[in-house]
Amino acid sequence: MKPPYEITSTILKLISSISEKLGEVNAAHLHRPSPELRKKNRVKTIKASLEIEGNTLSEAQITAIIENKRIIGPKKDITEVINAIKVYEELPNFNPESLPSFLKAHGLLMKGLIDSPGKLRTKSVGIFKGQQVSHIAPPPGNLDFLMNQLFGYLKEEEELTLIKSCVAHYEIEFIHPFMDGNGRMGRLWQTLLLMKTYPVFEYLPFETIIKDRQQEYYDVLEISDREGKSTKFIEFILQAINESLEDLLKIQDRIFTLEDRIDYFLSIYQEDYFSRKDYMNVFRDISSATASRDLKYGVVNNLINKEGDKRITRYKIVRKD
To answer: Is 237 helix (H, G, I), strand (E, B) or coil?
Structure first.
């Protein structure tokens, strides 16, 4: 059974805009950013998602933890970051259509933070806004049915990934399957669903937009609860995604370093051998002299081997086991 929502003109416009931007991202080789940019965006994602839940650590502190450096801070906050780093490292290995995979991810994310991480709650819960209850989650006896229903929906191939990911995010928030960690699991699982279709989302920190509009995030959750459908929530999240892609495209005119180009080419080229022309077909805006310098760098650093000379020169990629 498909969770309730409506396709509005706003949703259609946002999907169109996002699709256009994804095409631009691919054309500009931004869907696989440089290692340094990937690291920075991962830090931003972790910080934003945990800050929404009250974590106080800075980007500098999170970076230090990633680099295995000791920091001073609240034990709980440090544990949250360590867990989040592990989960994001494992992200490509999770199956977004698998409930056991979802439970495993929660187990890693909340290890040492709650009792029985990775287990569906066995108690009733209510979400409070001030002194008033803003949301009463479904009773624990309904969780098995609701979660299996949700993951059945996630297997539907005809549903657009952009829509499906937003619906999953909302339903995880609404069902509230765990005693704690539901918000970060909703955001994590949306990222996972998106990146399986669009790899750029593995490193796109759209959660920073949510953090900047945290009150609006909670407001659209409440509106969707009252209306009994996730329409408004879908509109909000799609707008956040659209703005994140827009921010990413603002750096499309940055000068890719030699290392960036080589790293990207070796990651996408499937054949063992290639020519300078093949290399320039990927990077159409560089000169032949620049291509030659790039390839010389690759040879010197044992990334590729050069065979032949002048017109019959070809290069062999050094595949590492």
So the answer is: helix
Report the distance separating Cα 311 and Cα 303, nearest Å.
21
Tell me whether residue 158 is in a domain. yes
Is 90 exceeded by the pLDDT of residue 205? no
Question: Is residue 273 classed as helix, strand or coil in its secondary structure?
Answer: strand
CB-count exposure of residue 243 (10 Å: 0-12, 13-18, 19+): middle
* Pairwise pLDDT comparison (95 vs 32), residue with the higher score: 95
- Identity of the residue numbered 316: K
pTM assigned to the model:
0.79
Whether 289 is in a domain gets the answer yes
Contact, 317 vs 266, CB < 8 A? yes
Host domain of residue 267: 258-317
Three-state DSSP state, 238: helix
pLDDT: which is higher, 308 or 237:
237
